């Protein structure tokens, strides 16, 4: 399920299109976000009115954007006019339902300010006198300034007042359709025709057609009377073919076909019956075709004029699309929040640059809507059959240990403290889910939606830049690593200090050393030079050392429990502070039912490499810091004239070195190793 699929509970096609546009272009204006939030809250709290609007009034509305496009291209027909007419009939009911919400607000508000009272007393006639041009300029919902207004006032200005004006402007159009179009035939026969009573010429031609039809029916009845059927069943029908015109059709199995009078001429035989004609019927058929030709010409001329008039309503249709699509999306947001399996809340929105993004018990919005994939215990036995695992089983499909509930996690991104988070942990542990969840929370908040958590504070970001997944582009000649580098390069070029950057396992498409070097350099650039919100999921555990040297960098890890005795791995999916130095890759290989000898060989090689890597290592940067400290000590020692000054310099050196060791565990191990006569390995 995608975010669009989750939020798209719109009842109209135009609402779905607008939602797609909102997701691709989230807001950065905090006032516009709050305006949407107020309206979503309003519909969220009024369940009955929301259901009435969605289920009874919005559902089945015509696609006004398609109607508008056909009118512009000159491809419209009476069907589009009738669709627009049906929409006009719904408008007063939609406005009335919105007024119910407004009345509830009015009753619930104990203290009403003067502006609300004035707005309540404003008469509809004042708005109805506005021209279509005024409506188009005043009711541009994307640019409407409603800052500082109450929900009552926003509802009035954004929907009730515009819909009143739109309904008034469509009044003459509705009257035209009722007068010109034969709405009875639309209802009963689904035919879109001009009413014969509207035009004198059409009326006369209609009378002639009725007279011809009556005479043709008389011939049919006389022909039918020649056959004796059970229960006097009428088996003769009048049908039309280009070859014969109007003719009589009778089933081939009918008795007495050979004894018919000579006035009836057999025209053809077919599986569906025998065709007969008469000279009188042939004359009537030709007469009817001539009258129908004149009727259609006259009707087409009238339809052309009707469509010309309808096209003049394009500005009003555009306003209708804007108002109804906005309403549809906001109702969808409220519906999703009210029907979610767990709590959705309205996030507190902070201005761009505030440097704070917090969520309590946050959940991945799409994940919690998935069917349960694992057992309720949350444990995965390594002896279970591989077929029990979902074929799409990966890091971003997780379930809770509590009967299928999605595991929630707290989020805290604070500028200069924890804005850059390095997320480590085992495969399938939930790293990707966690970092994507934060991106989705920010996106949902900036389009005006509620978010899946118990509390949320979201700082507006100017962009959400993500590099997740892995795959090549064969048609473009790009390898997996090259595609990864191009995407990352674009992110580094576009990111600002107000961006949210999400990077998932960068550098896995090349050698370990090259991948680590690139991941380290990019992480350092983002943390030091950009200082934006960043979530960096990785299996390069050496990256966690950045937390010791750069402000704002913190380590997070996803938890898992390994029971060696039961040969069982349990994913806990909880985010905790600190780094993790185990990826449990071999355990995942066991889950995938690798051959036993392969697993044993992998464990042996892993132990060999681990024994090498356990030797104390320090980075060049740490080495440079120690070298600088020693240089300072040498200078102090040279300047020392007495033994007391020498001891003081030595004490300062020891204290500084001790402080560095407290902050850097690798350096502490290095010092102890040197004192014990061991060796040291330098890493870049």
From TrEMBL:
<dbReference type="GO" id="GO:0030983">
    <property type="term" value="F:mismatched DNA binding"/>
</dbReference>
<comment type="similarity">
    <text>Belongs to the DNA mismatch repair MutS family.</text>
</comment>
<dbReference type="Pfam" id="PF05190">
    <property type="entry name" value="MutS_IV"/>
</dbReference>
<dbReference type="Pfam" id="PF00488">
    <property type="entry name" value="MutS_V"/>
</dbReference>
<dbReference type="InterPro" id="IPR036187">
    <property type="entry name" value="DNA_mismatch_repair_MutS_sf"/>
</dbReference>
<keyword id="KW-0238">DNA-binding</keyword>
<dbReference type="InterPro" id="IPR011184">
    <property type="entry name" value="DNA_mismatch_repair_Msh2"/>
</dbReference>
<protein>
    <submittedName>
        <fullName>MutS like protein</fullName>
    </submittedName>
</protein>
<keyword id="KW-0547">Nucleotide-binding</keyword>
<keyword id="KW-0234">DNA repair</keyword>
<keyword id="KW-0227">DNA damage</keyword>
<dbReference type="GO" id="GO:0006298">
    <property type="term" value="P:mismatch repair"/>
</dbReference>
<keyword id="KW-0067">ATP-binding</keyword>
<dbReference type="InterPro" id="IPR007861">
    <property type="entry name" value="DNA_mismatch_repair_MutS_clamp"/>
</dbReference>
<dbReference type="GO" id="GO:0006312">
    <property type="term" value="P:mitotic recombination"/>
</dbReference>
<dbReference type="GO" id="GO:0032301">
    <property type="term" value="C:MutSalpha complex"/>
</dbReference>
<dbReference type="Pfam" id="PF05192">
    <property type="entry name" value="MutS_III"/>
</dbReference>
<dbReference type="InterPro" id="IPR027417">
    <property type="entry name" value="P-loop_NTPase"/>
</dbReference>
<feature type="domain" description="DNA mismatch repair proteins mutS family">
    <location>
        <begin position="499"/>
        <end position="515"/>
    </location>
</feature>
<dbReference type="GO" id="GO:0140664">
    <property type="term" value="F:ATP-dependent DNA damage sensor activity"/>
</dbReference>
<dbReference type="GO" id="GO:0005524">
    <property type="term" value="F:ATP binding"/>
</dbReference>
<dbReference type="InterPro" id="IPR000432">
    <property type="entry name" value="DNA_mismatch_repair_MutS_C"/>
</dbReference>
<dbReference type="InterPro" id="IPR045076">
    <property type="entry name" value="MutS"/>
</dbReference>
<dbReference type="InterPro" id="IPR007696">
    <property type="entry name" value="DNA_mismatch_repair_MutS_core"/>
</dbReference>
